[in-house]
């Protein structure tokens, strides 16, 4: 396993070095330009901690890539608080456009993401030469790269169906799983988690019984004790949840307070606040499916630098891939013009932490490895990282190569003339 990490790290360093050499000779058209990215997500309310962490991640990696990137550009992040509202998102997007910003990043909530896609489809068609590109780093509703797919939208996270494909492939071999309870947030992502969990378990583990199902209001529930009582009464041995931020933190806290001894299969257990709630009681029984390779040496180096600066944890690998792919596309296009950069990014392959990642041209869904991790006590190096200073961390238990988690698309993408 150490040999594999070493090979991946060496390959990443070589690939980055090659990209920098190529960029230095090909990027004259945009070298030295400042590229502004409008970051639009929630900085207030119950999900504020998540937003603040991810904004710092964007700002931190802008500093890192400003030191060296294939296009020779400088990145500047301009933040907007959308209060988790689609309408506030559109207002912020218009304000960013009025400031001349041509790249927008968002990830917290598929409702705001849908609003951005719908707005940009209309805006870009009516404003040739002033187009805007959407860099979606965490909104995971599969419809965004299926029936709602757009040339202007690029998703850097694995979508809900991809993560469930990996999660249930892992669960297939866990014979202790017999009765499953589904608790999710009452919006598109939560509905999709339920849909794909049922479909995948029926196909892979038809013996598993779904013994309960709840949908809770997004970022509004403060006491999950009644739901924990329902889970206990159902006889469930396993919970599947796509909850994130306060809705997962408070769910886990209520489970631990009630000494509910079941497994949790999650999407977002590493998100700010939840690791502290996990504590020692969750060791060995809370799993997370995601795209962050916590044990990769290059990723660990970034995590250590981020923690030293902010006393916080970097857990959103998608942000790294945004900068990696965006700068490579600008070098390839020899331009920062959104139309040219979008065309260059469509189908582009770049090195990342766990090997190369590819922006699938058909639907602009990033194809990448997916990881199953489990919460457990930190050990000796290189497993010594302490998440939220708890003395615990997420240990990789299985890696799924990109083709395993990849799911088909129904996208019929409308592209600008000539592209």
Describe this structure in words.
The chain has 419 residues and is of the alpha/beta class. The chain folds into two domains: 2-158 and 295-368, Rossmann fold (3-Layer(aba) Sandwich), CATH 3.40.50; 161-290 and 371-404, Response regulator (Rossmann fold, 3-Layer(aba) Sandwich). The chain is built from 13 helices and 15 strands. The protein has helices at residues 2-26, 48-67, 86-98, 110-126, 160-171, 188-204, 225-234, 246-257, 274-278, 297-310, 317-333, 338-345, 402-405; strands at residues 34-41, 74-81, 103-106, 133-136, 153-155, 179-185, 209-216, 238-241, 263-266, 286-290, 349-352, 355-359, 366-367, 370-377, 392-400. The strands form three sheets. A seven-stranded mixed sheet has the order 7-6-8-9-10-14-15, sandwiched between helices. Strands 2-1-3-4-5 form a five-stranded parallel sheet, with helices on both faces. The radius of gyration is 21 Å and the shape is globular. Mean pLDDT is 93; it is low at 1-28.
